[in-house]
Every structure is written in C-alpha cells, then in structure tokens.
Specification:
About 30% of the residues are buried. Helix 2 packs across helix 3 and helix 2 packs parallel to helix 4. The chain is an alpha/beta fold. Helix content is about 35%, strand content about 20%. The chain has 2 domains: about 100 residues, no CATH class; about 140 residues, Vaccinia Virus protein VP39 (Rossmann fold, 3-Layer(aba) Sandwich), CATH 3.40.50. A 7-stranded mixed β-sheet has the order 8-7-6-9-10-13-11. The protein has a two-stranded antiparallel ribbon with strand order 1-2.
C-alpha cells in the first residue's frame, strides 16, 4: 500500500502521523488524497459502478486518468486509490471543474475551526488511559486528531465509525470525550439523559453554569492537566489562546450518579 495508511494496537493508532503528512505534502498530493478520501467516504458500500471525479487540479486529474505519475509520491497515491477502487470493481475517470464552479468545496477547504481540533498529546493520553482505563471510542475526533482507532467525526469521514456523536447513543459504551468547550452543556445533558459513562477532558471553569452538574457526575476525583498537555496536530507549536485561564482536568463521569 501507499503512504496514507497505518495500523492500530489495543485501540490506539500507531500508524503514520496524518497531520504531519498533511502539513508537508505538496498541493498536488493533497488534491489526490482529497479525491481518494471523497471516494472512500461516499462509495465505501458501493460496487460495480463508474465514478466520475470532478476535480479542479489538473495534476490530480492526470494521475487518475493516466493511472499514475512519474513522480514517486503521486504514483504511490494513485496506486493506493486504484487498489481500493479495483477491490470494489469501481471504474474511475476524472474531469476538470473550474474553481469558480466549486465554491462550496473551496470555501470548506479554507475554513479551519481550530476549536474542534485541539487534542491531548499522545503521551498524556496514554498516561490518562492507565489511570482511568481504555475507552472504546473517541466521540469527538477527526482523522488527524483521533486518539483511538474507533472514532466519531463531526463531518463525513471514510475512516470514522459514525458522524455526529450527538446523533448516536452513548449508553453501554465507554467513550472518550474532548469536546469544544462551547459544547460542555450539551455533552453533560447527553451523559445524564442516557446514563452514559465517559472519560471527559474539560476546563475547570467553576463559574460556568454547567460546572456543578459535572461535579455531581464524577465517578472519582478528577486529575488536573497542564496547559501544554494539548496540541493542534496541524500546528504542533501553537499555544492555546486561553492558556492563561485554561485549567484542564480529566475525569470519569457517569450520568447514573445524577
């Protein structure tokens, strides 16, 4: 296989660092990868069909229509794409679409909501798991910041086990939750309504209306985390804008205690 894969042991990713690859890859490689991820997302249950990919990058189009490239990285990417498609008897062609007609996708590709991408550094996550046990699913994640192989994404993702954690049941699973802080009230309501048990990373903001409810849900005393225990995969050196007042805790909570 090509360079976009990885493997998992004990529920944790040990494969290639997708975020590091994304930030260093040439735009042509990223366009080809985008085509592959789109194909995986929308055709993962389809077989024996023809798919015409409309792309605004001429190099990616040439790779697909010519079954490869003289450039090694593009060749590997194209080969992996075709291996996936051939396993499903999916015939591929690509055609050009002008960027002006591709405004929605262009806008989405340039929109980065960094609030949803912060994650615990790997060493801290591994340490937390030793204290609280290994969760079964990362409920708020993406392919670049997931801390478990099984994860739920906010938007369609070919490798995610589901989309939108709020639309699925949390009952009967031990989930890992590091949500955008603006969603804390919804998270706690979900845990309470479904009597769920989750491992939660949260800001210890005692003046927030949701904080007393959270305190009642704690299975045991939470553990404080340093502000530099989190990172942005796209920008590993980025410091959280709330560093001064960001007092992070991690705790196991249960809706059955309320």
């Amino acid at each position: 296989m090509g360079t976009w894969g990885g493997h998992v042991e004990n529920g944790q990713s040990t494969g290639r660092d997708w975020s590091a690859v994304d930030t260093k890859q040439h735009i042509n490689e990223l366009e080809l990868k985008a085509a592959f991820l789109t194909l995986q997302c929308f055709c993962k249950t389809r077989n024996n069909i023809h798919v015409k990919l409309m792309i605004d990058n001429t190099t990616a189009i040439a790779c697909i229509n010519k079954f490869g490239s003289v450039r090694p990285k593009l060749m590997m990417g194209t080969q992996e794409l075709y291996e996936w498609a051939n396993d499903r008897n999916i015939r591929l062609t690509a055609a050009h679409t002008a960027g002006i007609k591709n405004k929605v996708a262009d806008r989405e590709s340039r929109t980065h909501n960094l609030d949803t991408e912060w994650c615990l550094k790997k060493n801290w996550f591994e340490w937390i798991v030793k204290q609280f046990g290994l969760p079964e699913v990362d409920l708020f994640a993406s392919r670049i910041n997931k801390r478990l192989n099984v994860y739920v994404a906010w938007r369609p993702d070919p490798h995610a086990s589901g989309v939108d954690a709020f639309s699925m049941s949390w009952s009967g699973i031990y989930g890992y939750v590091f949500p955008p802080f603006s969603l804390m009230t919804r998270v706690l309501r979900k845990v309470e309504d479904e009597k769920a048990t989750v491992l939660l990373v949260y800001p210890a903001w005692e003046t927030q209306a949701w904080f007393p409810r959270l305190q009642k849900m704690l299975v045991r005393d939470p553990i404080p985390l340093p502000w530099d225990s989190i990172m942005l995969p796209q920008k590993p050196g980025q410091i959280h804008p709330l560093k001064v007042k960001l007092k992070l805790h991690v705790g196991k909570i249960s809706g059955a205690l309320v």
